[in-house]
Specification:
This protein is of the alpha+beta class. It has 13 helices and 38 strands. Strands 5, 6, 7, 8, 11, 12, 14, 15, 19 and 20 form a ten-stranded antiparallel β-sheet that branches. An eight-stranded parallel beta barrel has the order 21-22-23-26-29-30-31-32, surrounded by five helices. A six-stranded antiparallel β-sheet has the order 33-34-35-38-36-37. Strand 31, helix 11 (about 545-555) and strand 32 form a beta-alpha-beta unit. It is globular. The two termini are about 50 Å apart. The model has no long low-confidence stretch (mean pLDDT about 95). Its EC number is 3.2.1.22.
Length: about 700
């Protein structure tokens, strides 16, 4: 049909009506055949007391055509051309992608809308570009991607947080009005992760129709979900542009960040499975095909106290525990004895390292470990050589006081001299030393981010991408971790240039259970940095048994935060046990399909990962259970006709004291059919609050 564009993936269809503007008629379950009468069957009535024409919910809704909720484009040309109305002039489509060109010959603007449906993952990818066809400047204030939702998407699940408590979720009804989230912090942010879910009432981990959305952008953003007064629903996401930030000269173009979205009939598990498959195939670019190495990061072990001989002892002890990558954190560079000085002076402190860094790196490598180094290139301290030489490199608005954040300031990466200095210093470090890994930190928000007097979050974000791109092109074997006071810069676009996220500065295992679950909806385990910390958390002062700490870290990209020289031998053995357990199951953890099971006890998290023939399931008791006996573990993702070998992998020994008699299967191997596991389930032992067990299933 010439008036229909039908994009198909393995499980989904995206059907777009071609008219004055393109409009999505269906996005969801796959449609095998489009009927001839589909256009007639989807024609809307026009209600009384409204406009006399139908107003489509297009791929870029227009205020000028009567869309009164949230237009996809806003801007003006010296107060004129502020309500454009576009007409489609051409389009291209294939089985998986479509490109639409639209023009407004009055406002002299051209839109290009690109939309792709990935066949294997069912993920939709969309962006819009606007080009100024007039010789006078066009001041763009908003350009966002819009995708519709069906009427039965009646509930939203959104994300909020703060430092050390990222990826918290919130549920709300979605029947009138809507939801809006704005982020002006200059980075993806701890507070406002650019993602949300909409779905049928009471959708959960395993059930319900759900639509998931994520904006791949590391700067400011606006994310909203609206219900129109006629019942139509949509989600809209784009960069939040500061006043005057984008001014388009003649034939100049601005493009939105990519909006990623997917639909699922199997609840949130279906969403995470689709996002994970897409990210693994299209976003992550590991320099080598090898297991993700277990980390030891020195920060919580020694902070700023650097002694090369002592650090080499730490490395020796770390290697004995099974660590595979050893990272020296903050404090290695000249003048850095605390958090108030020396950022920007990326030269080795020869007073701390009189023999250079080479002996330490050589020792680390001799222990069979890779070497990594902490940097924070975007920042500068006023007490630094760099600031004394180049105070003009600070990202600020002249004439105003620029507040410090964590006693530091932001460098203007759009300044070419500053950009070149940072590239030269980082490249020299990577050339001189055998560094396989950079922990790239970014520890504050942007306040009055001005470049030559104009707002510059967009430019700063793109300059960061350019710096990372250039560095990786020059040093393609280096891996980079995106750490921004923990989880402050986590999104698909930064992940194209990095290889790991530090999910949170909070190493409290109980808090991490929620943080890591929220993050897991979008990102696969192999990029989620998850460390076993000391028994007392440095951020909450809460103490946890090694079982809770080890099991919480085991399912991500594992690392440890400790001083292995000082901890008792028994503690080191416990760390080594969980490192070995992680390595044993790492191939499954870092390639399998992640899932979560609904728990009858809302104080329990049940999650797992599976391949075609094996499965790991972790049951974490977050707090005191509601009942004296736990509910059976009913496993929905097994094959009913298959048989499985079931073994207990890990159990907190302290929990045995809670039972006069424990289930005898705990120290046996069971053979159970899929329908038994799914319908009857596995009786669990009683667990202490803040403890976890793990079960392994192998298909036979």
């Amino acid at each position: 049909m010439s008036q229909i564009v039908h994009l198909c993936s393995k499980n989904c269809s995206l059907i777009i009506k071609l008219a004055r503007v393109p409009e999505i008629l269906h996005w969801g379950n796959k449609i095998e055949q489009i009927d001839e009468d589909i256009l007639l069957s989807t024609e809307r009535p026009i209600s009384q007391a409204r406009l006399d024409v139908d107003v489509p919910l297009s791929l870029c809704p227009e205020l000028g055509s009567g869309h009164f909720n949230a237009p996809g484009i806003e801007g003006h040309r010296n107060g004129y051309d502020w309500a454009p109305v576009f007409n489609t002039t051409e389009h291209y489509s294939s089985e998986s992608c479509a490109v639409f060109t639209l023009r407004d010959d009055v406002a002299n603007l051209e839109l290009k809308i690109e939309i792709e449906l990935d066949y294997d993952s069912d993920v939709v990818k969309k962006r819009i570009s606007v080009t100024n066809l007039e010789h006078s400047k066009y001041y763009l204030t908003k350009l966002s991607s819009t995708l519709p939702l069906p009427h039965h998407a009646n509930e939203l699940m959104t994300f909020h947080g703060r430092w050390s408590r990222e990826f918290q979720t919130h549920r709300q009804a979605f029947s009138h009005g809507g939801f809006m989230q704005e982020n002006r912090r200059g980075r993806t942010s701890h507070e406002n992760f650019p993602g949300l879910f909409a779905g049928s009432n009471n959708f959960d981990q395993q059930n319900g129709q759900v639509w998931g959305f994520h904006l791949g952008w590391s700067g400011n953003h606006q994310l909203r979900a609206d219900v129109k007064s006629d019942g139509r629903r949509f989600v809209q996401a784009g960069e939040l542009l500061l006043a005057g930030e984008v001014r388009l000269d003649y034939m100049q173009t601005y493009s939105t960040p990519w909006l990623y979205a997917c639909a699922s009939n199997t609840g949130l598990n279906g969403i995470s499975d689709r996002f994970h498959r897409y990210v693994r195939a299209n976003i992550i670019r590991f320099p080598e095909n090898k297991p993700r190495p277990v980390h030891l990061n020195t920060w919580e072990g020694i902070y700023f106290e650097h002694d090369p001989e002592y650090i080499m002892k730490m490395a020796s002890e770390a290697a004995e525990m099974g660590v595979e990558r050893f990272i020296i954190d903050d404090g290695w560079f000249v003048g850095r004895s605390g958090e108030r000085s020396a950022l920007g002076d990326w030269y080795l402190d020869e007073k701390k390292y009189p023999n250079g860094l080479e002996p330490v790196i050589e020792h680390v490598n001799q222990q069979g470990m890779e070497f990594g180094l902490w940097v924070e290139p975007e920042m500068i301290s006023k007490d630094s050589i760099l600031y004394r030489e180049h105070p003009e490199w600070v990202l600020e608005l002249k004439g105003y006081h620029q507040p410090s954040g964590r006693w530091q300031y932001v460098l203007n990466l759009q300044n070419k001299d500053c950009f070149n200095y940072l590239f030269e210093r980082l490249s020299e470090l990577l050339t001189r030393y055998n560094i396989g890994y950079l922990k790239w930190d970014m520890n504050r928000e942007l306040v009055q981010p001005g470049h030559v007097g104009r707002p510059a979050v967009n430019g700063q974000t793109k300059a960061l991408y350019a710096l990372l791109d250039k560095l990786l092109a020059t040093h393609p074997k280096v891996e980079i971790e995106s750490c921004s006071s923990g989880g402050g810069r986590i999104d698909f676009e930064i992940l194209k240039r990095t290889h790991r996220f530090w999910a949170s500065d909070c190493n409290d295992a109980l808090e991490r259970q929620t943080i890591q679950r929220g993050m897991s909806y979008f990102f696969p385990p192999e990029v989620m940095g998850a460390h076993i910390g000391p028994d007392e958390s440095h951020t909450t002062r809460r103490c946890h048994h090694i079982n809770m700490r080890g099991m919480t870290a085991l399912s991500g990209h594992m690392g440890v935060e400790l001083d292995p020289v000082k901890v008792p031998a028994e503690e080191k053995q416990a760390f080594a046990h969980y490192i070995a357990l992680h390595k044993q199951y790492r191939p499954l953890l870092h390639s399998g399909r992640s899932f979560r099971l609904n728990a009858s006890d809302n104080r329990q998290h049940i999650s797992g990962v599976q391949s075609d023939d094996e499965m790991l399931i972790t049951v974490c008791q977050l707090a005191m259970p509601d009942y004296a006996l736990p509910a059976p573990l009913r496993i929905s993702c097994v094959e009913p006709g298959a048989s499985y070998q079931v073994n207990l992998v890990e159990m907190p020994e302290t929990s045995f004291q809670l039972m006069k008699q424990r289930p005898s299967w705990l120290d046996k191997t069971l053979i159970l059919s899929g329908d038994n596991l799914r319908e009857i389930g596995l009786t669990l032992p009683i667990l202490d609050p803040e403890s976890a067990l793990m079960v392994h299933l192998k298909r036979i």
